Amino acid sequence: MIVRILGEGQRRVDDGDLQPLNQLDNDLVAAVDAGDEDKFDTALTALLDKVRQIGVPVPDDEIVPSDLVLPSSDASLAEVRELLGDEGLIPG
Amino acid sequence: MGMGRRLALIFKAKANKVLDKHEDPRETLDYSYEKQLELLTKVRRGVADVATSRKRLEIQMQQLQASGDKLQSQAQQAVQAGRDDLAREALTRRAAVNQQLADLQTQHAQLQAEEEKLTTASQRLQAKVDSFRTRKETIKATYTAAEAQTKIGEAMSGISEEMGDVGLAMQRAEDKTQQMQARAGAVDELIASGALDDASQPLGGKDDIQRELDSMSAGNDVELELAKLKGELPAGQPAQALPSAEQPAPAEEGKK
Questions:
Q1: Which site from A91, A92, B89, B254 is most exposed, i.e. has the minimal number of CB atoms within 10 Å?
Q2: Residue B173 to residue B171: CA distance in whole angstroms
Q3: What DSSP character marks residue A17?
Q4: What is the pTM of this model?
């Protein structure tokens, strides 16, 4: 499974390692839905740290779509909301 | 559905939009490749813009540092001359300069981080674009419609996502650069207005504190010159030779 951290590139994560990621991802969704900045920061940091820890960087010349795309570590709650809500933000 | 999946789907939807634009998927490949090259050019320009802003910030930081140092030495001179009022004024200005300097240092660190991220992103995009070109040619050479749809779909999703990511990184860097430039413009105005001392002025430009310190030391110089001249008077020459002098000059007294 391929996971992208925006601004950092992609990492390949073993399917067997997905369980902890899903849990952390759910925490992040809960924080975004609740609009809780502090929880959001904590959840995002925990999720990204885990991905960095268990994921192996995808080589630069490999072109694969991601199964998960995660906000960059310094993203704010508002930025993530915009990303989810407004497709126009992502040029393509 | 998780956050990560939702975001991934948004990127995929973008890629599909591009795919649907052309009837022959091979045209999509060429079209996308052109867009990739355009984006690469933009990203490189973006990196250069951020670097320019960073350098401008560095120049301003040097100016402010020089201002702060100068005010510090003015304060010392003023204290030596017994002018606490002047020293206080210099130290107050130095505090304002230091505050500005601290703000600029924070901005500088942010900008440097953006520059590094964008540089890495542009290197990654370059590698992917090169790889895409090879893949594009392979797909076109062995083209069978059914097979190509899948292969092209995957390549397009992958590269579109990369482009989307780089596009976002560029937007962030541009935002930071713009904020920074607005700030830098304000600092330039402050320096030009003299509110932040004038270490940046061309040589010869002087602020009020310096003028006062200079006039004090100029006054001292005159006194010293005068004392020296008096000391050079020949010992035998009586002071009363000067019609207006009624008493011996102090310098002459010192020689006795």
A1: B254
A2: 5
A3: G
A4: 0.72
